Automatic annotation (TrEMBL):
Keywords for this protein: Kelch repeat, Repeat
UniProt xrefs under PROSITE patterns: BTB, PROKAR_LIPOPROTEIN
Domain BTB: 65-128
Top-level taxon in the UniProt lineage: Eukaryota
InterPro entries xrefs: BTB/POZ_dom, SKP1/BTB/POZ_sf
Protein name: BTB domain-containing protein
Amino acid sequence: MVRLFPGGEECNNLRLLKMTSNSSQTLSSCASMEPCVPEELFQALSHAEHTFRRMETYLRTRQLCDVVLLAGDRRIPAHRLVLSSVSDYFAAMFTSDVREAKQEEVKMEGVDPDALWVLVQYAYTGKVLKVTAISTDPQKLISDH
């Protein structure tokens, strides 16, 4: 049993990857952000799953949310990083030099509120619930995901 962080979750699903100096795999160093090739790499097999589950918890408890999407009369809190990581549409909106990149509330014109909520849930869970009526093209929001 390994503790990754003090007070953090116990993780039994770590694997050790042996890497040689001619390996094409890299690991970014937090200090310099330069690629490096370690002799050994410990990798949590379900890291992404646990991370997105934690982010979904933050969404549901409205913690660390940094944007509110407005569609119709609905206010949908979210995290720009999560939306941008799964949607080219949101990535362009939040990383470009446009007004929405800095706004705390972003009005989503012509977007069905229920469809937007489904898309936000998809960003956090990778699951899509059936939507019967959508007044905009959902592919516009989820891009190639």
